[in-house]
Write a structure and sequence with these properties.
Blueprint lengths: L1 H26 L7 H6 L19 E7 L2 E6 L7 H7 L10 E5 L2 E5 L7 E6 L5 H16 L5 E6 L5 H8 L6 E5 L13 H13 L8 H12 L12 E4 L5 E2 L7 H7 L4 E3 L13 H11 L31 E4 H4 L2 H13 L1 H4 L4 H12 L5 E3 L5 E3 L2 E2 L5 H6 L18 H8 L19 H30 L6 H19 L4 H12 L1
Length: 516
Amino acid sequence: MVSLRLTRKVRNILLMLVLSALVLVCLLPRGFSRPAQIRSGATTPEIAPHSLERERGSTLKSLGNQGAQDDVVLKSPTRVSDTESKAKQRPSSVKDGQMAMVTIEGLYQDSENTRENATFFSLVRNSDKFGLLKSIRSVEDRFNGRYHYDWVFANDEPFTKEFIETVSSFCSGTSKFVQIPKEMWSMPKFIDQKKATKTRRAMRRKRVKYGFSESYRHMCRFNSGFFYDLPVMKDYRYYWRVEPDVDYRCDILYDPFTVLRENEKVYGFNMAPLELHTTVETLWDQVLNYQEKYPDKVAPDNNMAFLSDDDGKSFNMCHFWSNFEIADLEFFRSDKYRHFFDYLDRAGGIYYERWGDAPIHTMAVSLLLSKDKLQFFPSTGYFHEPNQDCPRAFDVRVKGRCDCSAKDEFTWGHRSCIPKFFDVHGFERPHGSSNLKYTPIHKSAEYKKERAAEEAAEAAAEAAAALSEESASTDEQSEEGGEAEVSLHSDNQSEGNDKNDDTPQNQEDRSEEHQA
């Protein structure tokens, strides 16, 4: 009995010792649990740049008065060098110190592995803070955590201290906050304000999105013709536009800025939806007038075929979505672009209609540049309400750690103009999209009338030809009843087809009527 009690005591003591040891191990600092790793290297293991503390506010610097508020620069604390940090954070798919991407030209190699002279640019207000933080977090996690490019934030009003400190804490690069001068954010003197007001009221009655907003038109004009002239932007060669409430749902394993520079590209885009016809009713006519008046400024091998489905008679509403825009600022600062923008600006369509910066940029790069200067950036997982870009190929989604669904993908849908862009340029389509076709939806009223007249003339000609053939064949036909019965049956089939015509063209017309 005594022996049995001793055995139980020993067992309980051993159990308590084991439990105590486990508790001690759990309470020890993480560094103490890996002494061998620390001793094996010359220095303490390096912390990844994106996990460093981002304390801001210690180094404020004025860049000069831009309106009511000085530009503010908030620099990052001392960090690991860009080259060293990128080398330590390369994705597993990168080999031999190179970042790779598959583009429409084939395999692209980011061999230099260095930062470009570039920045992110966001036009925001203080009320956009949380939507902007979401966007910055996505960009930093998916791309900029490896590169630490600068961020420039512009506002037509003064930024609050809270906004500056909060937003800069999310940025891995230097943050710069500027106020837009009044002359860049106001209606020009040559605009008839009564006419502009009448337009806004008419668009409000028609329930056109942002149709009544004067501020929205200021924004479109600023993004079309002034953002690149901000003093802070003159320090950079390239820019990447980021808006609030966007999301990148795939890792971007290459540097788009380097893609532009090494391939001598000027303008990069990701999506190409259709514009609202009611907002750009006379834009195409103005562009054609410019083309006729200044032929020396038009690029010979341009991209204008992308913008029309009827040899230039009308605008098909295809445009590059400028909320994702990566471009060479030297183009926007060039005399050629300034001349083009001034021409459209003087036409007044920004205020008399509602021309947006997206169609204006699209017209400019399509008319003034050779089409080989345009770069499509695929597989970013970019999301901006309501459209989603998502790679259709499963292996691409896996490599990019994409958390989007190919079922929600917009880029290669029938409402997207990307298929037409590939067809115009003769590019091979990516896997899974070979059978998709661009479907034109918007057409001008004038084009519809002309097309209806052409179809009526074609139908009359076909009817006359059929009647002539029938008359000629009557003399050669047998008088047997069976043959006559077959001919009559065939005529009834044709008549039935005329009454219930379901050709692709008529399907499209019915679709347009339904859209209207």
